TrEMBL record:
Superkingdom assignment: Bacteria
Keyword set, alphabetical order: Transferase
Record-stated family: Belongs to the arylamine N-acetyltransferase family.
Gene Ontology molecular function: any one: acetyltransferase activity
Keyword Transferase carried by entry: yes
UniProt keyword annotation of Transferase present: yes
Short name of one Pfam family: Acetyltransf_2
InterPro entries registered for this protein in UniProt: Arylamine_N-AcTrfase, Arylamine_NAT_domain_sf, Papain-like_cys_pep_sf
Protein name: Arylamine N-acetyltransferase
Length: 277
């Protein structure tokens, strides 16, 4: 097997899956496994920023993404997670392309037969299976009190992405055109903006992972550790020291290689106090 083939095999092995022919069932297993394996986190983002001398950030290549998870348990934010997931899907034989939601978020459209499906493992959202948004039958994805809707805006393939937590809208409404194919070059400006000091994921400490085998998700925002269960129950713990955060990432997230203490130091250098109330 070539080095490139080895990278695909390694990626799939991280997901505890086998290489199969493209199908809806296989794509669903990939989505489920991805959300339970690769964390949505900005720890890697902060350290890549530091390692580039606090300058330009580049989305890690397919090979670097795989090595970074293997060596450091890195996942990433939407640009890193969804761009590399789409590379994997293409290497597995799926037909897919990127779309842009709300002029900032990167999603994936996968075509199976004559139907398009929305795939997204880069928004902490519960897309455990491809969303059949065009048919109107399965445009809601949920986990506990976290719900995401993909709703038609008109008959011209325009849709909107809306997320609700405990019945209240969470975040922005993202509009998108489901058939407008977007390339990585189209994201360069928004990626550059997202990596400047003061941008959302340059001014907090963030990590999120689903653990559906335990019917829960785990989430860190600065020094607040939240566990959300599929029955809607939620617990929140305030962590008092960087070492407590490191322990939670290692023990509760099961990501002991993630260099969270280094990321806390980068935020300090950017004048961000994650323990400030």
């Amino acid at each position: 097997m070539s080095a490139r083939g080895n990278d695909v095999a390694k990626y799939i092995s991280f997901l505890n899956l086998e290489v199969e022919a493209p199908s809806y069932a296989y794509l669903e297993r990939i989505c489920q496994a991805h959300l339970n394996t690769f964390p949505f986190e900005n720890i890697s983002k902060l350290l890549y920023f530091r390692d580039h001398n606090y300058g330009k950030f580049e989305v890690p290549s397919f090979e670097k993404f795989i090595r970074a998870f293997e060596n450091h348990h890195y996942g990433g934010t939407c640009y890193t997670l969804n761009s590399n997931l789409m590379i994997l899907l293409k290497k597995l034989g799926f037909t897919c392309y990127h779309i842009m939601l709300g002029k900032e978020h990167m999603g994936i459209i996968v075509t199976l037969g004559d139907e398009r499906f929305y795939v997204d493992c880069g928004a902490t959202a519960p897309f455990f299976k491809p969303a059949r948004f065009e048919s109107g039958h399965e445009n809601r994805s949920s986990f506990g009190n976290d719900e995401v809707y993909l709703l038609p805006v008109d008959s011209e393939n325009n849709y909107k992405y809306m997320r609700f937590m405990n019945g209240k809208q969470s975040g922005k409404t993202w509009n998108f055109h489901s058939r407008r194919e977007i390339t990585m070059d189209d994201f360069l400006q928004v990626i550059e903006t997202s990596n400047k000091p003061g941008a959302t994921f340059m001014s907090i400490l963030r990590c999120h992972l689903y653990q559906t085998d335990q019917q829960r998700s785990v989430s860190l925002v600065n020094n607040k550790f939240t566990i959300r269960y599929s029955n809607g129950e939620t617990t929140v713990t305030t962590l008092l020291t960087p070492e407590e955060i490191r322990s939670v990432i290692a023990d509760e997230f099961n990501l002991p290689k993630l260099p969270v203490l280094e990321a806390v130091n980068v935020l300090k250098e950017l004048d961000v106090d994650i323990f400030a109330e």
